[in-house]
Amino acid sequence: MDLASIKPGLLTTRAAMHEVFGGGSQGGIILPKNSPNILIYTDHDSGKKYGYEDGWLEEEDEFGPIFEYTGQGTRGAQTFLGQRGSRNAAVLYHADAGKSLRVFMAAGRVAGSKSAAKQQRYVGEFALDARLPYTVREALDEERKPRLIIVFRLRPKGAFERLTQDVITRADVTAPQRVSAQIVTTKLVEPKRSKRSESRRAAQPSLIAELRQGAVREQYLTELTKRGHDVAAFQIKISGTTTILTTDLYDATEHELYAIRGASTREEIRMAIGQLKDFARHIRPRNPKLTTVLPEKPQDDLVNLLHSEGIDLVLDNTHGYTRYAAE
After folding, report:
1. CA gap 166, 44 in Å, rounded
2. pLDDT score of 201
3. What digits encode the pLDDT tens for the residues 162-209?
4. How far is CA 162 from CA 61, 99, 108, 127, 171, in A?
5. CATH code for residues 200-324
6. DSSP label at 163?
7. Residues of each domain in the chain carrying CATH 3.40.1350.10
8. Worst-scoring range by mean pLDDT, 210-214, 222-226, 260-264?
9. What's the pLDDT score for residue 204?
10. Cβ-based neighbours of 286, under 8 Å, separated by 6 or more
């Protein structure tokens, strides 16, 4: 078998792919040394054991379909660092290394085999979503303890196979799950990128705002924690969809839901209002107080806009945090 014969829908085995690409035969992420490819193996059954499900999102966005794949590591928080996180890092920087991501889905036992080997169905070639390559969520490990997981967002390149059984299970009901604030305040440390990659992203306004937003979020979590407040976040599965939404901080002590932005522009404030109104419908207990935290005071018209929607404004200044309450 050669690379040209490996097309979406092909039923094969790990052993056969080892002959074509090389690399190891164990684990979900295989890194062949002498091939410009990374092999990703996923299995619906094993994923559910560890509190996650890989597969296609049922909903597409303006850029097309998304395949979610959970990174390597079944105990403790997943990482990009060290030996334990090296394979996750390889996926994260696959484009910098000039490598393709090739996804295989387990498809039952190999017919006639006495071993536990499974067939592998080739789904297609993928690349990480350029806008949001991964997201961080909370799931249970094999000992049923909560941990952080890395969920990669893969976009198909060229031909692919999207079968119904490969679509993530839709939620029967809307289910808000309270989780650690770490999922929104922990910025996973990524290995050093190449200088070329850094320069390509350094001037992007979206990245600058994202970094500032993260800093504001972490600082305000520290402030609430100093006050002795019980702070968390929510992961929300939406009924009839495969979507999982993640809130900003939730202060359980005050029953207050926050939207935290990295700039005080009209666009960012509109986004904060929409985020709060959307998420607040699903928070339990109902009717949380709504507040946005901004790095500097916006123009008066935007403060009035927030207050007209019943949303408080909190600002960081040299004397601590100042709250402008909606009447």
Report:
1. 8
2. 42
3. 999 999 999 999 999 999 999 998 777 787 766 555 444 444 445 677
4. 16, 22, 17, 16, 19
5. 3.40.1350.10
6. -
7. 200-324
8. 210-214
9. 46
10. none
Q: Please give the average per-residue pLDDT across 24-41, as a whole number.
A: 90
- Tell me the two tokens of residue 189: 């440390």
Cα distances (angstroms) measured from residue 253 to each of 2, 225, 292: 60, 11, 17
Facing residues of 186 across strands?
none
Tell me which CATH homologous superfamily contains domain 3-168.
SRA-YDG (2.30.280.10)
Angle at 105 between CA 113 and CA 123, to 5 degrees: 125
Tens digits of residue pLDDT in 222-252? 999 999 999 999 999 999 999 899 999 999 9
Instruction: Work out whether strand 118-128 and strand 256-260 pair parallel, antiparallel, or are unpaired.
Output: unpaired
- For residue 87, the SS3 value is helix
Percentages helix, strand, coil for the chain (3-state, rounded to 5) are 25, 30, 40
Per the prediction, the chain carries an average pLDDT of 89
Q: Can you read off the two tokens belonging to residue 228? A: 């002795």
CB crowding 196-221: b at 16 or more within 10 Å, else e = eeeeeeeeeeeeebeeebbebbbebb
Model confidence band, residue 73 (pLDDT cutoffs 50, 70, 90): confident
d(C-alpha 189, C-alpha 89), whole Å? 10
Of 15-29, 205-219, 271-285, the range with the highest mean pLDDT is 271-285
Q: What is the pLDDT of residue 207?
A: 62
Residue whose entry in the numeric block shows the structure tokens 């209002």: 273
Q: With contact defined as beta carbons under 8 Å apart, do 198 and 248 qualify?
A: no
Q: What is the pLDDT of residue 318?
A: 72
| 3-state SS class at 198 | helix
Three state DSSP letters for 206-232 = HHHHHHHHHHHHHHHHHHHHHCCCCEE
Measured at the alpha carbon of residue 272, what is the angle toward residues 318 and 240, in degrees to the nearest 5? 145
Nearest-10 crossing angle of helices 266-280, 300-308: 10
